[in-house]
Records
---
Amino acid sequence: MRRKRGTPETIAAGLRADMLTVYDSYRRFLAAGPTPSTGDDDKAFAAFHNACRAALAHLEQLVDLADSKGCGDVAAEGAALLAQARQDLAALEDSDESGDDDGGAA
């Protein structure tokens, strides 16, 4: 039996929903992660950072898939989410670096 393929509209809607799910989960994970300068060790922060980067890669794959399926509007929306997510991660990295500078001397 042959499986029915989705229409372009259902594919776009599914990809949009998946991108929003990944982005929302990423934001919650980022907000709950190790707080800079609170005693979280370097290994915990590195593991957290790697998990964030994996989520970004997942979002990027969804953007690429949307683009390859001809869902340009959805790909553009996903690219905007990806850009925001990257900025959020960069801000976290910046705050961790500034936290290291402040907490080193007693």
---
Amino acid sequence: MNRSFGFHGVLSIHDFKAIEVIVMLTFDLRKLIDEYEARTGVRMSYQELASLTGISADTLKSLAARQNYNATLHLIEKLSSALGANPINYFSWNPDQFQDGENSGT
């Protein structure tokens, strides 16, 4: 199924009132931190994790709080390495969040 579209012409930022972001693949940082604590008995704050990984505490907070945060693989690799976990266990795939005429069978 092709979800791309073509456009010829000029658009300005004023042509769009709102753009909905559809996120189908997410990374669950809270789950990673919680499972680290359960495994080690060490409660890791965002500031401590920031010091350990070199990722800013604000970035970590955004990743944990915003479902549509666009985390890079490098960032996920740093977090998983620092907390000794396989990152595959913290991804969720939610294709049902995207519904359109083609996808929903209507």
---
Amino acid sequence: MKSRYGSGYKICVVKANSQEEEYEKRIFEEFPTAVKDKDNSEIYDSYKIVTKEFSFEKAFTLMEGLKKAKKVSDFNIMNTTLEQVFIQFSRHQIEIPAENQATS
């Protein structure tokens, strides 16, 4: 299931002093296909990146530079986990109405 639905990488960012616009701009410049997750908070943002051109080296260099410039407090970069695959998969399932379940 992971090999079929688990494409991409995730960059998670711990915000530093409301610098969101600056680091977000840099992430989108480096990875134009990045998508900001909806489940973020006041101190945390995450971005999903689905591209064949993704490079851990490029992402790490970018994020380490932003951390040294104090634009982010911390970050992590990861492959899609099996848990994330299940969550993503379950969000796209269509619920079967109760009346159809009785006839199945």
